[in-house]
From TrEMBL:
One of its GO terms (molecular function) is small GTPase binding. The keyword Protein transport applies. The lineage of its organism: Eukaryota, Amoebozoa, Discosea, Flabellinia, Vannellidae. Keywords: Cytoplasm, Nucleus, Protein transport, Repeat, Transport. The keyword Mitochondrion does not apply. GO terms for biological process: protein import into nucleus. GO terms for cellular component: cytoplasm. It comes from the Eukaryota. Residues 28-94 form the Importin N-terminal domain. This is Importin N-terminal domain-containing protein. It is found in: Cytoplasm; Nucleus.
Amino acid sequence: MALPQDPNFWESLLAQLLEPDTKVINEATAKLTELLASAQSIVHIFERLSNSGNMGVRHQAALLVRRRLKDNWSSLAPNVRDGMKDTLANIILHQATPRPIRKASADIISVIARIAIPEGSWPNYFPFVVSLIQTEGRGDLRETGFYLLQQIMELALDLESELVSQNFKDITDLICKGLQDSSMDVRVQSMACMNTFVECLNLENEVDIFLALLPHLINTIKVCVDEHEERVAIGFEVLNYIAESHIGRIQHLLPDLLVFMLTIGTNLDIPITIRQKALMFLEFVISTKPKTFVKSNLLEPTIQVAFQLMTEEEEDISGEDTGSKYGAQLLDSMALVMPTNLIWPLIMNNVSNFLKHNNPEYRKAAINAIAILAEGCVEEVEEIFDELMPCVLNGFNQENAVRQASCIAIAEFAKNLPDFIIPYGEQLVPIMIRGIQDSQDLVRVKSCYAISECSASLKEYFMPHIEPLLKRLVEMLTDSNVEVQEIAVGALSAIVEMAEESIAPYFSPIMEVMKKWMVITDKKQIMIRARATECVATLASVQKELFLPHFTDCINIVLSGLQLDNAELRVFIYGYCEHMARLYTEQLTPYVDGLVPYLFASIESMDAFNNIPEDDFT
């Protein structure tokens, strides 16, 4: 097939990919697919990257060239290849080139480099990259240079090449200067470069040279944090690597570094996404190097920071990306790994002070700390349980935030100290039932969580209330909040499991409600379907005879969920089938052949997942 030679043809074709009309895009895509069967089509598309006046066309051309060049490079004449290299260099060097086009062109250069460097056909590539990094007055070129340097190092890792080792000192010096550059973009890209550089370290002397960059890295992180530059995350990744692999070599820097992280973590003016990185670094050091952390003499201020973080408000049900969440994680890490004699007095002193505070968020933090201690300092909590329980019970009569914390504390007591809550069952059950009727979403959610955890220990106190309890939980399935619906189904399953044979009078209405939820396909509600599937499996376990007439209908509904290709739902489907295999082996047998292919597909999927390198998860 003869390729059109007119540049206007290619300009028009690529422009059609930018149209808001799906039909136009599909027709253009079909035409391009046909033309791309010829390797020479890349040359015409590349020409549009170089000469088009439409930035969208240039970007589309760059994307197409990057995707297709590897397969077509060997088919191109040597002079065409050299021309492409020169043109890409000129695009990058041209001061008027828009940033996205410069980045897209650098991506194409990286594709060529991955082909040309191993075969030795681009000897001046590394000097070209270095020249970009050393360009005075052009931060855009220095940034591009560091991006290409990072790609070189990734290539060296893939090929197990000596390229980095042979240029180790030069690369170190370049990164050192980049971390001190006047341009924020250059500094950020230098940190990204450093993050790849750490993977190339082999010899002890290389590690020492690399660690000499650490003060410059920390200073760059400080600058990024001050300017609320969220790309600083890559810098924290480098610090995490150092803490994991070489913490013994940075003991002299660690106290100041940890104080810096504490300062970032408590600064409300800094975006939570940045604060999170600092707090996770702290948590990592505490969890993996507790002795080193204790030697830093920062235990008391870190506990105070954790408490201060827990006073921050939770804005939604998930609690994700809040200071309160990260403060609780920080305190939990300390409670789990630090010597109890060191942390218990410090934590309890804060609990005592915060419980007296006028601000309900402080009282919330105190009760959340008690909940955390129920796992990390369980023996100490046992000794004063009857002193702590009134504090938690009193929280149910306070503001929303405090009531939520008391729900969590009761749930944690039920998980870690089940025998200790039994004497309080008569008080707790009515409180939890009132909680699921609360007007606040978070109170309802956390009350459901408490019911789920307490049901096994407090069965004798729940059973007199089972009818209104089940009725309310079913009502919550129509709540406007999906998270409320999901956790209500979980609580319903727990009550069904608790009631066992006593659930019989309520079996049919619960089953009918669950069947309705087991057929929903809305992605936003798919976890409710999963929880409903789990609930039906529980119903089958406690009422085998009553469930038998529903077996065929339910197994067909459940297996239809495999067509939705949702990994989380599949987990619940397989769990359901496991239940059925134990309870109704004969009835399940005809369905096994249809289930097996999905099981093998999931196993193969997990094998593939396990083989993906960690740095692909970015």
